[in-house]
Each structure stands twice: as structure tokens, then as C-alpha cells.
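Annex B. Sample input.
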Amino acid sequence: MRPTSPKEILDFVYREVENISDTLERKLGIFSVIIISLSAMLGSGLFVLPALAMFDLGGPGIWAAYLVAALVVLPGALSKAELATAMPTSGGSYVYIERTYGPLLGTITGLGLWATFLLKAAFALIGFSAYLWVIEPLIGFSINIEFAALTLLLILVIVNIVGVQIIKKIQAPIVLSSVLFLVGISIWAALTAEPDWSRPISEGAFGDSWRSLAETSAFVFVSYAGVTKIAAVAEEVKMPETNLPKGMIISLGISTVLYCGIVFVMMATVDSNSFLIDGHAREDPIFVFANLVGGPVIGIVASILAILTMTSMALAGIMAASRYPFAMARDNLLPQSLEDVHQKFETPHRAIIGTGLAMGLAILLLPVHDVAKLASGFQIMIFVVINSCVIVMRNASDTHLSYKPRYTSPLYPLTQIIGIISGIVLIYVMGEKALIGAAACSLLGLITYFTYGKSRARLTLTPWRTVLTKFTSADQHERERYWMVFHGCCSRHHPNHLTINEFIQAMKILVPDIGQLNARNLFHEIDKNRDGVIDVDEFLESFDAGKMQSEE
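Annex B, continued. Sample output.
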């Protein structure tokens, strides 16, 4: 049934898809994008997880789990690169999902990602404790883990407030030193330690079934989550249309080669029993590897680098996590004070401080190690939804004209479909762990939306609604399309009406074969009050009248 009045769809607030903001200064180039992405990945994934993953899989073939996880991440990274060039603003996945599906799912996503990222960063600050025992004899006293973690957290919050430029200066030497050291020790092991190259590919190395490999891939999936964290600070990236996709893809390639190559050599060099202590998997596998290959001094160097790299990972995690409440505040889903930018440093200082306080409470009150694992399920779900966002956006692009990505993911929609299916498979094999993590994050978002955000959120005509009405109500879909094209062609200086040239542009979108003369004549026919412009009511009523005449 056709709506009786154009006012029926005018409760929506028009908002361009990209909603680009210049609140934050663009300071990060391609090298910085790669370094930040790598620093967000090269932490616990190499320095803590390998031994845990080996016993989770039941064999030394965990390099294959890292490879499978990278292949699952790849479609999401390509999709996110496309979305990031269409919407290069702070907030990353939150922005893309909120712009695609609306504020409810956006709130769940934003707070869920904020919680998972800060928990991962807190885990990094706690995780380096596995290496502290190596350096305690050197400094002559034992270190309280919680005190050390909280002290580092305070320093990292201050560094984040001071700005992204200093973060780049800190992270670059740490990441490069860790990469060079790990590559060097792997080459040295291959040349001198007489590794058993058949061990990582032998029968039983990959567990007892494909499910074992899939479960382990889901376990190590978090190792790659940092590849897209840079999208959360897209507003601070120079030339985001080129630097974001290149940076994501290059950093994913580098990290995949490092994970698979180093872990393969490690498993070939070190006997599986060496990764056990008191019947449990060790959380300092790089020390075990370096100590065996190079001796105690190299083991100490490995431990120091592990501590520095995990600290760098936490630094990147705080930066990415703080941008979610910052972006949500700009959309009225969280208090506007979180949107404030420091007058001198041009960083969202209140969002950073709030994230730091939440991390401190997590370190003191929560079993961060276990909670961070549960959050992995939510992150996999986000990758699934991100792939769906590209499909929805592309299908709605003829209506939502401002979706104009500078980079488009290849092999669309096959890439996105593969990403969705593979992500669902990993969620399935994770079982209740994924559901518990997703339920906790979703509950946090639902409570926030219905107690604060719902009454303040701007109701917009989302691409998801556009795609949905295409299949459920053709008349409503057409009217909403006219409404979006009207606003898409309006000038920013007069957003409520069309001039004759803007009207001609709109008609060429809606009726591509219309001639310019016919469009001009139609403009004067619709402009009944002869004021030289057409408002939204006149625009929609003209299409309703035209449709009624064609039906007669």
C-alpha cells in the first residue's frame, strides 16, 4: 500500500555515508600505518600463544592454524579497506556497521569492540609477566605484576594523550627490533640447531581432525585482529584512500609470513616437551626458543624484546580502543564530553583516560587472560558483519550516493561470501566460548543504547533499510530512494531545496535517459510557486503524482 503523504518518511535525518570529519589532524603516513598495524599484532600472537596453541591443537603443526586464521582475516581486511576509504573517520568497524545498520547495532559494535580491545591491551600488559622472571635476577628484586602493569598503563595513557606522532617514534624501533631479532634467531636456528623439518608437517602434527585445526585457528585468530585496528584512527591518516588499504594488506602479509615462518622453525627446532612446565603449556615460548638456539644471553635479549613488544601492543590497543567512545559520542550514543579533543595535543583525551581507567579496573578485578579469550568470538563475529556491510553498501549505492570508496575489494561478492562463511565456521567450532563473549559484549551495548542512546540517536535512512525495503515494499523503497537522491544532490549551503541545476543532476540519477530539456521543463512544472527552487515535499509529490497518472 502506497504511503498517503510524503511526510511519512521525513522523520529521517539525512547524513552522508562517509561523514568525514576534520576534528583530528592527519599525521600518519603509510609507514606509520604499517608500524601501528604490526605493533597491534606482533605481541601475544608470537610471544605467548604458540605453546598454548600447540597443546590446544595437539601437535606442532600450528603454523597451519596461523595460515588458516590469516586466510579468514583476509576477506575482512579487504572489506574493511574498502569501507575505510569510503568513510575515513575515527571509529573503524563501529562507524561502518552503524552507518550500514543503524545506531542499535552500532552501539553494540562500538562498546563491544571497545571492551575487547581494552581487554586485549590489558592482557598484553599482564602477559609480559611470563618474561619478567628472566630479568628479575639482573635487577636484583622481584617485580609485583599488577603494580608493574598499572605503572605501564599510566605511562601509556599519557603517551596516547600527547599524540600519535610520539607513538610512531616509540613503536617503530620496538617493532623493527623485534622483527629483525625473530627473523635472525630463526635463520640462526635453521643453520646451526639441526632442526627436524619433518616435525611440523608429520602425521598427527595438525591434530586428529579438521576440527582441531579449525579450533586452533579460532584460538590464534586474535593474533591478526590488529591488522584492521588502524581503521579506528583513519581520521589521523594522510591520504587514507591509498595508505589505509596498502597499509592493511602489507602488514597482514608481513605478519602472516612472520607467524608461519617463525613458528614453523620454532616447532622444528624445539622438542614439544620443552614447551611444558609442571604439565602446563609455557607462556614464554620465545625465551625457550632463543635460549636453546643462542644461549642464556640471547634468551635474556628475547625476554626484554618480548616485554617491550607487549608494551607496544598495549600502546596501540589503547589508541584504537579510545577511538570507539570518541566516535560514538559524535553520534550522540555516548556523552558528548568523550568527543572533546585536547586543545594542545589534538587527541580525544577524555576517551583515552576513560579507556585507561577501564583497563586498570580490568587488571585489578577481572581474570583478564580468560576474559580476553572469550572476546575473540566477538571479534570474529565483527569480521563477519564487516563483510556483510560491503554487500549491503554496494547494493544500496544507487540510493546512498555518497558511498564512493576510493578502493574496492577484489572479486566482489565472492570475497565477502567466503569471509562470512569461514567466520561462521570458526564461530561454530569455538562453541560456547564464542557465544559467551558475544553475549557479554551485546548486553553491554543493549543496556547503553536503551538507557542513553535511543532517545538521543539521529534516525537515519540506513543502507540496510534501503536493501530491506527493496524486497519487502517496492513503493516505499522508491520513495525512500527519491528522498535520498534529493538530499544527495542538495548543496551543503542549502540542504532543504534543489536549484534547477541540482534538480537536473537528481533526475539524471533517477531517470538516466532523460534529456536536459525535459528535465528543465519538469523542474518548472513542479515549481508551482515559482520561487526557483524545489523543496522535498514538492519533489516527492511530483513522483507520487507521476506514478498515479501512469497507473491510471
